[in-house]
Design goal:
Chain B: It is found in: Cell membrane. The complex is a heterodimer of chains A (about 290) and B (about 300). Chain A is an all-alpha fold. Chain A has helices spanning about 1-35, 50-60, 60-90, 100-105, 115-125, 130-135, 155-180, 185-190, 195-205, 210-225, 230-235, 245-255, 260-290. Chain A starts with a helix and ends with a helix. In chain B, helix 3 crosses helix 13 (about 260-295), helix 4 (about 85-115) crosses helix 12 (about 245-250) and helix 7 packs antiparallel against helix 10. The chains are: A mainly alpha (about 290), B mainly alpha (about 300).
């Protein structure tokens, strides 16, 4: 008996996690998938009724805006964070005397909640009291920076705040990558008189491909989950101009009482995440097996 | 700058010096971009409303007053309740401390099994667990709300601890597994020959080696749980709301005069714990985290 027990202890230790994940991740996904196929309103109903919720979803102009916003926001957020992060990492890699202090400054936004960050940015971007008022006060009465309340531009204020929050983390990833490149190769190249910018573009950056991938996955995942920042900064407005799928889902679930719509929008979000993450995890896990 | 190296090698001394200055100038400009919100938050929170209306965004306060801070802490209204952030700050502590400890402990045991006690099917399970880390939480929000309701945990602090523990397990397990994998397997084999069992080996060999990864996991979980808004706003009721939800309610409440200084003070209070943790232990966190992702 004790022998049996000691042989199976590892499995027994994992069992609670196993069942928790099975139920609270996969079971719950199945539940949401099921409800997304029904006519559930305020209360869930379990009679399957085909793809009606998805039809409603894709013909809803609000969802259309939210989904388009996700791609505009996601693309800008990912590309600019990566470019900025890489640039700052390369700059910091030039034997900067105050590197430690600068690194801390670039990174601290990551420690803060999006709700805190959004509150601060909302204040800075407030046309009546923030940057616009400040520059006008400097003697430029025609200066305008009212993106926050401009339906066409409000989404870009969210991009601005999101980049502020995440680019330091990307910088840290790239900096660690730069430091892990073999110093001998770099020294040899420099002895041969190859200019530093060539050393970066030809040797260092190409060898960091896996870090680009990691950074991309982290940022894409953050972009799709973005919810707090929108709530804090614009609340989805003006109108629905800055809605994202995450805020659409929340509105349907908790203020509209439309569970079917909430479930179908959540399933589409999951589809987007998995389209990005599954190939990545698959290659990661395979690589570790080999 | 095709022929201009950033550092050393050829190029005139003056050219190099100019470049060096440009480099520092760039870095400082970006430092200002990252510091601006913090600066504005702190200065605004120390100004009177009158000074905010008449002064400039980046002006230093003429007269420093802590009124906004005391109001944010114990008097600001979140909807109908006017007790400031204090009770919610306490809620956040009550949620995050057990949440962090339980998920870290379970993660450590799980990671230990995955790294050192592999069995048939363990890799498959690990893959399933990893996929679970990446789901958007929107997909579990509805069933979780119903389940918490059924078990009478809706709107309670234990309910939120439970939710955070469950969805934190993937990451805590991953951190510990990746760390324990680097510990040679011979250590376990030798201990087994000496008659040590599963738990004995964990307590006396693995746990003492775990300080660096514990730091990473605890900081990660603490920031995740403290900063959470989605679960807090979905699953809490008036008495159990975390500080992020209360902050959002203060800032977006529509009644009365908008008190920007109170908003800013409240935002700083809500952000302070994670900021402090980051400033005190952030170095170890980044080191551990980047080591993992760079290797991966």
């Amino acid at each position: 008996m004790t022998d049996w027990l000691s042989r199976h202890v590892p499995k027994i230790v994992l069992a609670p996690t196993f069942f928790a994940v099975l139920l609270f991740v996969y079971g719950f996904i199945a539940w949401t998938a099921w409800v997304s196929l029904t006519r559930s309103k305020l209360m869930p109903r379990y009679e399957i009724d085909g793809l009606i919720q998805y039809d409603r979803l894709f013909s809803n102009p609000r969802w259309d805006t939210a989904f388009n916003n996700l791609f505009i926001f996601g693309a800008l957020f990912i590309i600019i964070s990566m470019v900025l992060g890489l640039m700052l990492a390369i700059f910091l890699d030039q034997k900067i005397r105050i590197e430690g202090a600068l690194r801390t400054i670039y990174l601290y936004p990551m420690a803060l909640s999006m709700i805190v960050t959004g509150t601060a940015w909302k204040w800075i971007l407030n046309p009546g009291l923030g940057i616009q008022a400040m520059v006008q006060g400097w003697g430029f009465p025609n200066f305008k920076f009212d993106w926050l309340i401009d339906p066409k531009m409000a989404l870009y204020t969210i991009v601005l705040a999101a980049i502020w929050q995440a680019s330091g983390f990307v910088m840290a990833l790239f900096l660690a990558g730069l430091r892990s490149v073999d110093g001998e190769i770099i020294k040899a190249a420099q002895v041969d008189g190859i200019p530093t910018w060539r050393v970066y573009t030809a040797i260092i950056i190409p060898s960091m491909a896996p870090i680009f991938l990691s950074a991309f996955i982290v940022l894409a995942h953050l972009a799709i989950k973005s919810f707090d920042l929108v709530i804090a900064l614009t609340g989805g407005g003006p109108g629905y101009a800055t809605d994202l799928p995450a805020t659409y889902m929340y509105a349907m679930a908790f203020s509209r009482g439309d569970l079917g719509q909430a479930a179908s929008s959540a399933m589409v979000m999951m589809g987007v995440v998995f389209a990005i993450v599954v190939p990545y995890l698959y290659s990661e896990l395979r690589a570790k097996h080999d | 700058m095709t022929d201009m190296p950033l550092t050393r090698s050829s190029g005139s001394l003056i050219g190099r010096r100019v470049l060096r200055w440009a480099l520092y100038a760039m870095l400082c400009v970006f430092a200002l971009y990252y510091l601006l919100p913090l600066f504005v938050m702190v200065t605004t929170s120390l100004k009177s409303l009158e000074e905010i209306r008449t002064g400039s965004l980046v002006a230093l306060p003429r007269e420093i007053t802590f009124d906004a801070w005391s109001k944010a802490w114990s008097g600001a209204c979140t909807g109908i309740q006017c007790e400031g952030l204090k009770p919610f700050f306490w809620n956040s502590i009550l949620i995050s401390v057990p949440g962090v400890l339980i998920s870290t402990l379970i993660g450590a045991m799980n990671g230990y099994v995955f790294a050192q006690w592999r069995f048939k099917g363990a890799n498959l399970f690990f893959a399933f667990l990893l996929f679970g880390c990446f789901i958007p939480f929107q997909v579990v929000l509805l069933p979780m709300a119903r389940m918490l309701g059924i078990f009478g945990m809706a709107g309670t602090i234990p309910g939120l601890i439970f939710v955070h523990t469950i969805y934190g397990l993937g990451f805590t397990t991953l951190f510990f597994r990746n760390y324990y994998v680097t510990i040679p397997h011979e250590l376990v084999r030798a201990a087994k020959i000496d008659g040590a069992g599963f738990f004995r080996i964990f307590w006396s060999i693995f746990l003492p080696l775990s300080l660096p990864i514990c730091v990473v996991t605890i900081i990660w979980q603490f920031t995740q749980i403290w900063n959470d808004f989605l679960f807090g706003v979905s699953f809490s009721s008036a008495g159990s709301q975390p500080v992020t939800v209360a902050l959002n309610n203060i800032v977006n409440s529509t009644t009365g005069v908008k008190e920007y200084n109170v908003d800013m003070a409240a935002a700083i209070i809500a952000g302070l714990p994670t900021l402090l943790v980051y400033i005190v232990a952030g170095k170890y966190f980044i080191r551990g985290l980047t080591a993992g992702s760079v290797k991966g």
